[in-house]
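Quick question: what would this complex look like in 3D?
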Amino acid sequence: MRVAFLGLGVMGYPMAGHLAAKGHDVTVYNRTAAKAERWVQAFGKHGGKQAATPALAAVDCDIVCACVGNDDDLRAVMTGPDGAFQHAAPGTIFVDHTTASASVARELHEAARERGCHFIDAPVSGGQAGAEQGILTIMCGGDPEAFQRAEPVIAAYARAVTRIGESGAGQLAKMVNQISVAGLLQALSEAIAFGEHAGLDMRVVLDVISKGAASSWQMENRGPTMLQSKFDFGFAVDWMRKDLGLCLDEARRNGATLPVTSLVDQFYADLQQMGSSRDDTSSLIKRLRRS
Amino acid sequence: MRVAFLGLGVMGYPMAGHLAAKGHDVTVYNRTAAKAERWVQAFGKHGGKQAATPALAAVDCDIVCACVGNDDDLRAVMTGPDGAFQHAAPGTIFVDHTTASASVARELHEAARERGCHFIDAPVSGGQAGAEQGILTIMCGGDPEAFQRAEPVIAAYARAVTRIGESGAGQLAKMVNQISVAGLLQALSEAIAFGEHAGLDMRVVLDVISKGAASSWQMENRGPTMLQSKFDFGFAVDWMRKDLGLCLDEARRNGATLPVTSLVDQFYADLQQMGSSRDDTSSLIKRLRRS
């Protein structure tokens, strides 16, 4: 299959690599060209090559994947002057892995439809490690037929690829995921900091309570690193703030109430002020510890 | 072993039953005597019997367990006029399964010591089902020697019995557990209600995200019942409010900050006003749904 991949960040770089390793004919584009050159050096043996613009990358492709920063970056690589929509042949399927708004997904879905193409919003979870190991979870929104054609291709870097519903549903599902995580991490932070203030051996306590009703992926995987004050890894505060902004905007539209999520968003703003922008999201506990 | 069990509520009734079934010589006391009579009818074949007061139940016992409502109930059955401390022989070990304050645990630990006895705070998690199946998690605080002697006895109804630290540490660990759960349940409620407002098929969404970083015992076990609006079971809002009160009091003493926990405590107060006092704690989502 001829596939273009737009955006070689910490996620896109290994994802495009998995496509090449699976035997697809991959052309990459990255805003900073040096990174695309590095990618070609690594994956050129599989036939991987680079293009100077998203438009050139997308020529004659069956599927065009993107994984960029936000709504504006996504519009630029898709419908901008040198965007992938420019020369795309009818029938091309655009698959967007950016965590973006549901409204930009629907806007690009409509723009693709007008050109006889397809657009699937397909945000991922699983982080950098999931991208590198090819075991991401991918939540998709869009037409069922286009999803069926794209699914075996993007499965190259996924453990699970699920169509949630119509255009935008993938992004909305990702928001559900982030809302679940944000409040959970604050609860875990309050619990651990409380135990520390109380003088408990928190390794023992977490070991005991992580077998019951308080247990979570975050407690099991981030509890130990929080106890060690290790935050220089993982999913950055800046990225979470971007994602929570999308959630709060969407809630303003659909009428949902997010009291704790909006509060935790403000706590992440505190962390940005405290110089923790690049720290993992579990750094919420920093605000709660004695200095 | 001669064991007394004080308080035959939804937890204590089956816990005392496991002790009798394991061959211990069990004497029970309950404020409402009819319940103790019912217990003797069920477990008399194992030699179980009842006493008219905590003091009489504790006569000649090696271990005196209690599982009552709160700090005041606990003081009444222990150090009250007819309390278990009255005739207790030196060396008696008191084991308290009530979720109570760390300060009442330390107070009774000291009172027991003055009589040549021992007091272990040993709150449980696992709920009514855990008590019935004898698979509770028990978090203990107190002297190591007394713990070692009590542990094989209370293991009759436990999957795990852990000494967390000195007197009060069991109660503090239970508070860490409840703080973790409260904020987590609110985050899960916001996530599900957001998805419902957005028109998503939340069964599909929860199925997808419960495999990754948002996953938790609550999402897996309470997510499906929340989607069905099933709340007439489980751990009641009134009980959680009592427990969060203990957490907030303790934090006021030890200097910990609990912004989301205190907010969720207020949301539970809303639920009490809404007539949901006896509903499961997952009923937090009721506040967030369109009426």
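Answer marked as accepted. Chain B touches chain A through 71 residues (CB under 8 Å).
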